[in-house]
Design goal:
- By secondary structure, the protein is of the alpha/beta class.
- It folds into 3 domains: about 375 residues, TIM Barrel; about 60 residues, Oligo-1,6-glucosidase, domain 2 (Alpha-Beta Complex), CATH 3.90.400; about 60 residues, Golgi alpha-mannosidase II (Immunoglobulin-like), CATH 2.60.40.1180.
- It is about 25% helix and about 15% strand.
- The chain has an 8-stranded parallel sheet. A 5-stranded antiparallel sheet has the order 12-13-14-19-16. The protein has a 3-stranded antiparallel sheet with strand order 4-6-5, with no helix packed on it.
- Strand 2, helix 3 and strand 3 form a beta-alpha-beta unit.
- Helix 5 packs parallel to helix 8 and helix 12 packs parallel to helix 15.
- Bound molecules: alpha-D-glucopyranose (GLC).
- Alpha-D-glucopyranose (GLC) binds next to loops.
């Protein structure tokens, strides 16, 4: 219309479906038992056919793999087990060619002990500039043989490890919020800032569309290193399985806010520097924070001069409870409304149990997970899908001797860790390795880095592609429908029609509603209309009336 300017289109990440690729377990093209970047390139047509907008690659940088690559030696390199820098470039270019954006992981909170900086720090001795790249402190007690304070590792045990000085004497202690092989970098040191900016530019120059920021709430520490009241309790605040939505869990969560090691106000100064770099590049580059903070703290990470998105762990923790789902969705929208940042929705990632397992496991868990996927995909903002979720996989039983997660080792088996959700994807065939690699029977069969279960034949990509009513079919349908409805983006178009207890209903202004039945009996949807897609073939439509058996959901065009 003359005289009226078209509003500028919103950047892609305001309404993206992002597919998380965990390269170790995606596809193994060189048949050594571990996934690789050429495997991702090979399967880009699969990702593109999922109709997602972007992929996020978990770390593939050089690493001794003590924490599956989140222990980085050189963040501007590719580990030989994953391929080469040329492979990474080709992956970014080919993804772009197929219309897919690419996010890479940055791991700024810590490095590997094998990073030259850390080895130089060990050699250089107390008080040296080399030690100032990390947090080295003298121990307490007359002999310095007690840790400098009572902080504990997220993976169990003390957050401090004592070193031996170059002269052979018992020495200082260094801080590690995770495994002892992952020393925390010292963000009060300007060198650490400059180095991270180099890493951002390195991947932006290669065409990366943005970053997933690992442990984004942890970089800044209280440099007085005070003891914490109940340090174990602070770590429990980040345990998803302990969040039942109770007042007690809420109080525990609030302890994270501006604590000595997590979510400190000054961490945003770091992201202001990063934002300036991101904004200096053409195209819509972005960053998403891995930061499980109380809802009222989330907006700080996504202000106009900090990052762009923050993962929504409250939603990821939500159980099969219609009321709680609605509360968390509303809280999320309220928390971000003033800053105008798009919310994010995810049901699982490489650190959590798979959503099928979390919601009960087996057939029931799978039915619920498919219904929850309808919720996650119908809300404004971006949805993140962890590889294998689109296949309805559940956590695999891993024999203790095959476990890899440092959480298992550091807690001495008290926590089983995250391996069950990280098993290599099943692509085809009736038996392990289900096409994860293509080594023929006559060739030496590599053992996979984690063993897949014997009963995944019906969950392979190949099996599900044959069946439009499969979980894979549902994910493809949801992503296509998101593209067909630009109204998904509107943060304000969310209303809550009356619903009986146990039934979740959200109406979107773009002409449809999502109805999910969390009760144990069949219900008739109070919203009538045409079923756009449903989580299960048992959902029935007769003359505009939709009937939903327990543990099912539907998108209804009304
Ligand atoms: C993040 C990663 C997790 C890793 C930890 C330490 O939470 O997602 O996999 O173990 O950081 O890097």
């Amino acid at each position: 219309m003359p005289g009226i300017a078209e509003p500028a289109p919103l950047p892609w990440w305001h309404r993206a479906a992002v597919y998380q690729v965990y390269p170790r377990s995606f596809r193994d093209l060189n048949a050594d038992g571990t996934g690789d970047l050429r495997g991702v390139i090979h399967e880009l047509p699969y990702i593109a056919a999922l109709a997602v907008d972007a992929l996020w690659l978990s770390p593939f940088y050089s690493s001794p793999q003590n924490d599956s690559g989140y222990d980085v030696v050189d963040p501007r390199s590719v580990d030989p087990i994953y391929g080469t820098l040329e492979d990474a470039q080709e992956l970014i270019d080919q993804a772009h060619f197929r219309g897919l954006r690419v996010l890479v992981d940055v791991v700024p909170n810590h490095s590997s002990i094998d990073r030259p900086w850390f080895q130089e720090a060990l050699a250089a001795g107390p008080g040296s500039p080399e030690r100032a790249h990390y947090h080295f402190l003298d121990g307490r007690g007359p002999l310095g043989d007690e840790p400098p304070n009572n902080w504990v590792s997220m993976f169990g045990g003390s957050a401090w490890t004592r070193i031996t000085e170059p002269d052979g004497s018992p020495g200082q202690w260094y801080l590690h919020l995770f495994d002892a092989t992952q020393p925390d970098l010292n963000w009060s040191n300007p060198h650490v800032h400059l180095d991270a900016l180099d890493t951002l530019r390195f991947w932006l120059d290669k065409g990366a569309d943005g970053f997933r920021v690992d442990v984004a709430l942890g970089l800044a520490k209280d440099m007085d290193y005070p003891d914490i009241d109940d340090p174990e309790g602070l770590v429990l605040a980040l345990r998803m399985d302990l969040d039942d939505g109770s007042a007690e869990a809420g109080a525990r969560r609030r302890r994270v806010a501006n604590s000595p090691i997590l979510d400190r106000d000054e961490v945003q100064d770091i992201y202001r520097e990063w934002r300036a770099v991101l904004d200096s590049y053409p195209g819509d580059r972005m960053a998403v924070a891995e930061a499980w903070v109380p809802p009222e703290r989330a907006a700080r990470y996504v202000a106009s001069d900090t990052l762009h998105q923050i993962f929504n762990f409250d939603f990821m923790a939500v159980g099969w409870d219609a009321d709680r789902i609605r509360t968390v969705v509303q809280q999320t929208l309220d928390g971000l409304r003033d800053v105008g940042a798009p919310p994010t929705w995810a049901l699982s990632n490489h650190d959590t149990p798979r959503v099928v397992t979390r919601l009960g496991g087996g057939d029931v868990g799978r039915r619920r997970a498919r219904a929850m996927a309808l919720v996650a995909h119908c809300l404004p903002g971006s949805v993140y899908v962890y590889q294998g979720e689109e296949l309805g996989l559940e956590d695999a039983d891993i024999p203790d001797e095959a476990r890899r997660d440092p959480v298992w080792f550091r807690t001495k088996g008290a926590q089983r860790g995250r391996d069950g959700g990280r098993v290599p994807l099943p692509w085809a065939g009736a038996l392990p390795p289900y096409g994860f690699h293509d080594a023929t029977e006559a060739e030496v069969q590599p053992s996979l880095w984690l063993p897949p279960p014997p009963d995944w034949a019906s969950f392979t990509v190949e099996a599900q592609l044959r069946d439009a009513s499969s979980t894979l079919g549902q994910y493809r349908a949801m992503h296509r429908l998101r593209h067909a409805h630009p109204g998904f983006v509107d943060l304000h178009n969310v209303t809550w029609p009356d619903a009986e207890p146990g039934v979740f209903i959200v109406r979107r202004g773009c002409g449809f509603a999502c109805v999910v039945n969390c009760t144990d009996r069949e219900i008739t949807s109070p919203i009538e209309g045409y079923v756009m897609t449903a989580s299960d073939a048992s959902v029935r439509l007769e003359r505009n009336v939709v009937t939903l058996p327990p543990d099912t959901g539907a998108w209804i065009q009304a």
